[in-house]
Amino acid sequence: MAITDWPIDDRPREKMLAKGAESLSDAELVAIFLRTGVKGKSAVDLARETLGRFGSLTALFGASSGTFCASPGLGEAKYAQLQAVLEMARRALREKLANGVALNSPQAVRDYLRLRLQALEHEVFVGVFLDAQNRLLAVEELFRGTLTQTSVYPREIVKRALSHNAAAVIFAHNHPSGIAEPSRADEMLTQTLKQALALVDVKVLDHFVVGSGAALSFAERGLL
Predict the structure, then answer these.
(1) Where are the alpha helices (DSSP H) in 55-183?
(2) Residue 223 φ/ψ, nearest 5 degrees
(3) Fewer CB within a 10 Å sphere, N or C end of the chain?
(4) In order along the chain (224 residues), what is the average pLDDT of each group of 10 residues?
């Protein structure tokens, strides 16, 4: 049955307009993004099948162009459209950080870092540099590594902090394994960076480990 034959209250687009996007299931949201189904399948059917194939929204968002386009009902146009939507979301969250005080919006910081890092297939180490009022100065990818590790050099981070005239910094790195738990090496690195930056009067406010659907805060864990 085509979606147009469904009761109005059950149609994803009408349901979203009446009740808000948060009322929709993952499949219904993907169906609105897809707009149309394929022969013998409605957009919702195709969305459910797509999510089942990828396993989650996170995996769908992080899929390579080749993997995404090889899925039935998708293609280059949909891939470009999805990347545009994700980049708009990242920029909107970054604007929210830039227009306010980062520590007054801890969820915005967490959401931005998750959206930027959680789907990457390699480790990256990011610095969020702040001024004395904890306003955003810059977000930089400082180091990039492999599937399992990244080499981080404290001297280079001190240089970047000084170049931004930063008073504070929030660090973040991702775990491509999807497990948002800090390792002992993560804890030791954080303490090393904290000590090195203290010598130039730059505070380390937090360090986030980003996994699949989660971002763990060192500050909240009492690890700073």
Answers:
(1) 57-61, 65-69, 76-98, 106-117, 154-163
(2) -95, 5
(3) N
(4) 57 84 87 84 87 85 87 89 86 73 69 83 91 90 74 91 96 88 90 95 94 86 89
Residue 42 CB burial class (10 angstroms; 0-12, 13-18, ≥19): buried
Q: Tokens 């937090």 map to which residue?
A: 206
Please give the model's pTM, rounded to 2 decimal places: 0.68
Of the candidates 35, 36, 39, 67, the one whose C-alpha atom is nearest the C-alpha of residue 54 is 67
Alpha helices in the chain (DSSP H): 12-19, 26-34, 43-54, 57-61, 65-69, 76-98, 106-117, 154-163, 184-198, 218-221
d(CA 167, CA 155): 16
